[in-house]
Design a protein that fits this description.
Strand order of the largest sheet: 1-7-6
InterPro entries: DUF1800
Protein name: DUF1800 domain-containing protein
Pfam families: DUF1800 (PF08811)
Keywords: Membrane, Transmembrane, Transmembrane helix
Organism: Rubripirellula amarantea
Strand content: 5-15%
Helix content: 40-55%
Length: 673
């Protein structure tokens, strides 16, 4: 066994250990599975996440056989697809490539999207087809969330503010709009880029007043919006700027009142001899948004002194001096009452304004004297511009952003060469422009290293395609939100709510432990350099890895408890093929359509239909990386456990649900190659 190729997958097996019993229980139970969603709150509150413990004694351990032989595999054959011709095999190779690419570039592909891109690959070549797909996405208009949320609650007869009454959780509409766009928006790459950027330029709804249902006061009477929409407006700032320039995005973020409140630059005042400017935003814009803690080479590797020590990018003096730059910012003034422009505003939708009397006008000396900010007119906005220019042009910013975007889209452990190539695109998009995010994300997705996560070989006699995974250095754990979003998108959901086709999905982080607008801290859901316990900590990776150690950030929120919740969600929704939008609205539902999958089971004699279904699910959810032994065992166990149910009306459904659960709960679905 080579740890480098198995470490992340080993961890995935450890945290889904209960699934082997659950899987067989699903196949044997003809009625509604487990407990209704209403019970989850009680289970969570009492920490009784092992609700099935009382039934374990009567459950077979057959599912554990599925796990054997794959836990310790290094660069093993991940999947074999038999085909009827070499032409079909050639097309299937493209489908695997298309699935991998679209899993990265969207919130998860439908089978129709995979087929369409694969056809383009056949016609144009793989790289050209993907490049054209990206260009098409870059050209699409932005699907924004704030106007959609307003349309939704107004369509439901609500006003959006405190007049709707305490019984209406009006703030839920920000989640409704987010999920609708994630699942339905045509500009999928822009939506994915915004989701990546919110994990760098982090804010959260937990800020003071962010769920306030009162109206803002920065606009003329009758035009003000509820303050809870502020976090939606901030997210839309990232959506709008997803393919723009990072310097512009930094400025828009700096002036956004949500960021101002979240990181304390709002109403940050100059010193009065006792009080000093708040340093929070000054620290985080350097540490988390631009240059990081230590000096970097262009390839993301840390620079060191002759004694081998890391070189800090800034010190406390620079933090204190930069904090002076970000003084004087406040809400836009109250449009109907300008008696005190520093203290009277409260509008989260309008950029902050500079209140010059509270701006520090003394010279600001940064980075040990390398820069001095001292505007001749002592203009606060000019000084902020100068500070942002310094950070944007810093040598660290290109590799810092490149590394994080690669982690969010492709792999947890990019090579130094990968980081260098993307950083160079950040420095120059080919037309002399620095910070072009559209060019950067294209470089991330089309880099040669992004295509090396699997090896796809076509064989003859018989015609088949063999997919081999390259292992831990080429993979990442899928974020639970992305994994669930793909489950939803792949199921062709529809809704009976509202009559407008808009998806009003409630926040679901209490099950999947991740949700839009709910990052637990400014450090995101996880640290970029997080290492879970186990083989990954002690293993020495190849020299091409930037920091000399393997990391797996998403495992910071992955536990047996969170995994159990996630599997229960799959079980309930696979079995019911529907869910409601909230416990107080039981008749307003979403419906999943798995008719094609169930028909696939019934289409052929013997095992052929089930074999085809498992191959289909492998391609759709695992990008063809599921080992053949695992797929064979799924077919064997599904057949065995449903052998006495052939006369049941839901026989094909149960076979589909069992196969789908085995695929969705597998490490090959959890790990993105």
């Amino acid at each position: 066994m080579e740890v480098k190729n198995g470490a992340i997958r080993n961890l995935a097996f450890m945290v889904i250990a209960w699934v082997r019993d659950i899987f067989v229980y699903v196949l044997r139970t003809p009625t509604r599975l487990f407990f209704p969603v209403e019970s989850w709150h009680l289970l969570r509150a009492n920490n009784k996440v092992m609700a099935m413990r009382s039934t374990r004694s009567r459950l077979t351990r057959a599912f554990s056989v599925l796990l054997l032989g794959t836990v310790v595999v290094s660069s093993a054959t991940a999947g074999t697809f038999e085909t009827d011709s070499s032409a079909e095999a050639s097309l299937l190779k493209r489908k695997v490539r298309a699935a991998i690419f679209l899993h990265r570039a969207t919130f998860g592909p439908t089978i129709e999207e995979i087929d369409a891109l694969a056809a383009e690959m056949v016609a144009k070549g793989t790289r050209k087809a993907c490049s054209d797909w990206i260009d098409d996405q870059l050209a699409l208009p932005a699907s924004l969330h704030e106007p959609l949320a307003i349309d939704m609650y107004q369509g439901d007869g609500l006003v959006g503010d405190e007049s709707d009454g305490d019984s209406v959780w009006i703030q839920r509409y920000k989640f409704h709009a987010w999920w609708h766009n994630a699942l339905n928006a045509e500009d999928q790459l822009r939506q994915r880029m915004a989701w990546a950027l919110i994990q760098i330029l982090v804010t959260s709804e937990d800020g003071a007043g962010f769920n306030d249902r009162n109206l803002g006061n920065g606009r003329p009477t009758g035009q003000n919006l509820p303050r809870w929409l502020g976090v939606v407006d901030y997210y839309d700032t990232l959506v709008s700027g997803a393919f723009g320039n990072y310097r512009d995005l930094l400025e828009n973020v700096t002036y956004h009142p949500i960021m101002g409140v979240y990181l304390s630059s709002m109403r940050n005042r100059k010193t009065d001899g006792v009080r000093v400017p708040d340093e929070n935003y000054a620290r985080e814009i350097m540490q988390l948004f631009t240059i990081g803690l230590y000096e970097l080479n262009l390839d993301g590797s840390p620079k060191r002194t002759t004694q081998g020590e890391l070189i800090p990018t800034y010190d406390n003096d620079t933090i204190q001096e930069l904090a002076k730059v970000f003084t004087g910012l406040t809400f836009q003034p109250n449009a109907s009452n300008n008696w005190n422009t520093f203290w009277s505003g409260n509008d989260f939708d309008l950029p902050m304004a500079m209140y010059q009397p509270e701006h520090d006008t003394t010279p600001k000396v940064l980075f040990g004297g390398a820069y001095t900010i001292d505007d001749p007119q002592s203009d606060g906005e000019n000084e902020i511009d100068e500070a942002l220019d310094i950070l944007f042009e810093h040598d660290n910013t290109a590799p810092f952003i490149a590394y994080r975007l690669i982690q969010r889209f492709v792999k947890s452990n990019p090579s130094r060469g990968y980081v260098r190539r993307v950083a160079r695109k950040f420095e120059n998009n080919g037309q002399g422009v620095r910070g072009d995010l559209g060019a950067v994300v294209k470089a991330v997705l089309l880099d040669p290293e992004a295509w090396r996560s699997v090896r796809i070989v076509q064989r003859r006699s018989p015609d088949r395609v063999i997919v081999t995974s390259r292992g831990t250095e080429y993979s990442r754990l899928r974020e639970p939100l992305l994994r669930y979003a793909h489950f939803m998108r792949s199921a062709h959901p529809t809704t009976n709510y509202g009559g407008d086709g808009l998806f009003r999905i409630r926040p679901i982080d209490w099950v999947i432990v991740q949700e839009s607008y709910r990052s637990p801290s400014v450090f995101n859901f996880w640290l970029t350099d997080y290492q879970p316990a186990g083989d990954i900590v002690s293993f020495q990776p190849s020299r091409r890895i930037t920091n000399g150690a393997l990391v797996a950030p998403e495992f910071q929120m992955k536990t047996s408890v969170t995994s159990n919740y996630f599997i229960q969600l799959f079980i309930w929704q696979l079995d019911s093929a529907e869910f409601n939008v909230g416990n107080n609205q039981p008749d307003k539902k979403f419906f999943f359509n798995w008719d094609a999958e169930k028909a696939m089971v019934e289409a052929s004699e013997g095992d052929e239909g089930l074999v085809n279904l498992v191959d289909y699910l492998d391609l759709l959810h695992c990008c063809g990386t599921m080992p053949q032994e695992y797929k064979d065992k799924i077919v064997e166990i599904v057949n065995y456990e449903t052998r006495n149910q052939t006369a049941d009306a839901d026989y094909s459904k149960r076979r589909f649900v069992g196969a789908a659960l085995a695929v969705l709960a597998s490490p090959f679905c959890a790990i993105a190659e």
